[in-house]
Amino acid sequence: xxxxxxxxxxxxxxxxxxxxxxxxxxxxxxxxxxxxxxxxxxxxxxxxxxxxxxxxxxxxxxxxxxxxxxxxxxxxxxxxxxxxxxxxxxxxxxxxxxxxxxxxxxxxxxxxxxxxxxxxxxxxxxxxxxxxxxxxxxxxxxxxxxxxxxxxxxxxxxxxxxxxxxxxxxxxxxxxxxxxxxxxxxxxxxxxxxxxxxxxxxxxxxxxxxxxxxxxxxxxxxxxxxxxxxxxxxxxxxxxxxxxxxxxxxxxxxxxxxxxxxxxxxxxxxxxxxxxxxxxxxxxxxxxxxxxxxxxxxxxxxxxxxxxxxxxxxxxxxxxxxxxxxxxxxxxxxxxxxxxxxxxxxxxxxxxxxxxxxxxxxxxxxxxxxxxxxxxxxxxxxxxxxxxxxxxxxxxxxxxxxxxxxxxxxxxxxxxxxxxxxxxxxxxxxxxxxxxxxxxxxxxxxxxxxxxxxxxxxxxxxxxxxxxxxxxxxxxxxxxxxxxxxxxxxxxxxxxxxxxxxxxxxxxxxxxxxxxxxxxxxxxxxxxxxxxxxxxxxxxxxxxxxxxxxxxxxxxxxxxxxxxxxxxxxxxxxxxxxxxxxxxxxxxx
Length: 589
Ligand SMILES: *[C@@H]1O[C@H](CO)[C@@H](O)[C@H](O)[C@H]1NC(C)=O
Ligand SMILES: *[C@@H]1O[C@H](CO)[C@@H](O)[C@H](O)[C@H]1NC(C)=O
Ligand SMILES: *[C@@H]1O[C@H](CO)[C@@H](O)[C@H](O)[C@H]1NC(C)=O
Ligand SMILES: *[C@@H]1O[C@H](CO)[C@@H](O)[C@H](O)[C@H]1NC(C)=O
Ligand SMILES: *[C@@H]1O[C@H](CO)[C@@H](O)[C@H](O)[C@H]1NC(C)=O
Ligand SMILES: *[C@@H]1O[C@H](CO)[C@@H](O)[C@H](O)[C@H]1NC(C)=O
Ligand SMILES: *[C@@H]1O[C@H](CO)[C@@H](O)[C@H](O)[C@H]1NC(C)=O
Ligand SMILES: *[C@@H]1O[C@H](CO)[C@@H](O)[C@H](O)[C@H]1NC(C)=O
Ligand SMILES: *[C@@H]1O[C@H](CO)[C@@H](O)[C@H](O)[C@H]1NC(C)=O
Ligand SMILES: *[C@@H]1O[C@H](CO)[C@@H](O)[C@H](O)[C@H]1NC(C)=O
Ligand SMILES: *[C@@H]1O[C@H](CO)[C@@H](O)[C@H](O)[C@H]1NC(C)=O
Ligand SMILES: *[C@@H]1O[C@H](CO)[C@@H](O)[C@H](O)[C@H]1NC(C)=O
Fold this sequence. Notes:
The protein is about 25% helix and about 10% strand. It has helices spanning about 1-35, 375-380, 400-415, 435-440, 445-450, 475-505, 510-530, 555-565, 570-585, and strands at about 45, 50, 70-75, 95, 120, 145, 165-170, 190-195, 215, 225, 240, 250, 265, 285-290, 295-300, 310-315, 320-325, 335-340, 360-365, 385-390, 395, 455-460. Helix 3 packs antiparallel against helix 5. One 2-acetamido-2-deoxy-beta-D-glucopyranose (NAG) binds near residues 171, 172, 191, 215 and 217.
């Protein structure tokens, strides 16, 4: 008994010890869990050291119980108002997303221990001012996004420690002035976005602190005037966006120093003339957008110094009414020229594009052209030109017949590889804009679709008819060219007939009364029988080609037209319609 009771005692002692140990272990485990929790609505991926607390977590503060070794922290669309020293524990942070919160200030030394941080997104908060030492300690930072805030001013040298920063986004703020020392320290900045602010001027030394800047977006500001030498330090600048800035005048040396500038956007400003004097021979601009400005006239040699120009956009200029015949002199390398949406532009000189030897795309859509002359494209054999002439009020008369043929050529150039393309689907017409044209060449699909969508506006019988689908006879050249022989023939005929009549009258004067009697009898008979029109066989006229100048040999043209009628894709329905159309008399003319 004693033995067994002592065994019992020993067993219970062991079990007590086991219980105590497990309790301690549990407490330890629980304790560690308590100090490292993943807040509700967050997604904590421990293996990758990522925590993602997006909108559903509705945080009001930065969670401080996350893994201190955290590398990426996503906190967008919460209700965080203050971030004071909240990141001191997360010393390994590389990526921090605080966009779309309610942060209104960043205190001095807020990121003092975060010298691994490379990306900070503070977009769409309520920042008004930035403390002078707000970004101290961030000596690996590469991207800083401060867009969509209410920043009114930036203290001098606030970025002075951000020597590694490459992208700074200050767009959509309320900045008015950038002092000379604002960008001190940003010696590796490549991309600066200060668009959508209220900036009225730069100072000459502002950009001397950002010597490797490649991309500057200053659009949607309030400059009114660009002064000499503002950009003189920006040797590497490649893209300069100054669109929508109310710019009315440019000093002659305002683009001085921009010897690598490739893309310049001056769209939607207040320029009353093309600022030719400011385009310096040293500028190597390849893409220029100068549309939506109120100039009424493009004067001679407007772009003369821009020898490297490849793409020129003059669109949405509602006051542009006249383009001088020498306007594009000197820019022989232009490949794409867009002159579209210029409602006041009714006429364009046939020789205006003569010197554009490299032209491959000419976009003349949505102007007010009733007519375009074939000479626009015949000079220097621009037969394969991509031509977009949609949305013009074309008068489809003989002068425009060449366009029918040119569009067929454009369409045919690519359609033979897939003739069924348009028959099996509804066509939607994509819209060109600067972005798409910068990024890609005009695709063959777009070429084909655009060729299909050019319509007549007048005469009434042809209104809204597709030019590419019109039979060549509808343009009236047939009529014009055959009317002179008809008149001459008719006159000869009249002469002969009247001669015969006179002879008859003279020779058969005695039988005249008998002739009249016979005639009356005949007419009565006709009236009694069922009268109907005589169907004379239509006279056959030889089609005289107007393309003889265009395609030197007439033999070619006949072959080409024949091939076209073989290759042009018609489905059964269309084919029948086409057939019927041809049997109708040409009353529409
Ligand atoms: C974070 O979570 C949200 C919602 O769960 C998700 O939409 C988002 O893609 C996540 N972000 C990252 C970087 O994983
Ligand atoms: C800014 O944040 C608000 C609230 O989260 C959101 O509705 C809005 O779309 C955001 N705007 C931008 C430009 O991100
Ligand atoms: C920042 O600039 C504002 C306005 O010029 C000035 O009032 C303020 O004292 C400056 N702050 C510091 C710390 O220099
Ligand atoms: C500012 O410019 C940069 C670079 O061009 C671009 O990535 C960014 O989206 C722009 N910011 C806004 C808010 O559009
Ligand atoms: C400049 O910024 C505006 C507005 O933020 C944007 O629409 C435009 O695409 C940007 N330009 C370039 C060249 O990135
Ligand atoms: C700018 O031009 C110079 C000389 O033409 C060239 O060496 C340099 O690489 C260019 N910079 C850029 C960013 O293209
Ligand atoms: C043109 O600029 C004005 C003034 O900056 C702006 O309000 C307008 O939205 C711009 N228009 C376009 C089409 O960019
Ligand atoms: C021309 O104006 C239209 C309508 O205002 C606009 O949608 C289009 O983007 C503008 N084109 C350019 C190149 O600015
Ligand atoms: C021409 O105008 C139409 C209708 O206003 C528009 O849809 C189209 O985008 C414009 N084309 C160009 C090239 O701007
Ligand atoms: C065709 O119409 C245009 C514009 O209405 C006119 O200038 C031209 O002289 C006409 N051509 C012929 C051959 O009638
Ligand atoms: C149509 O395409 C064929 C084959 O590509 C070509 O031989 C023919 O000349 C073209 N016709 C016209 C009118 O361009
Ligand atoms: C094309 O459009 C017509 C009428 O708008 C519609 O009935 C037909 O289903 C469309 N076809 C296709 C392939 O989308």
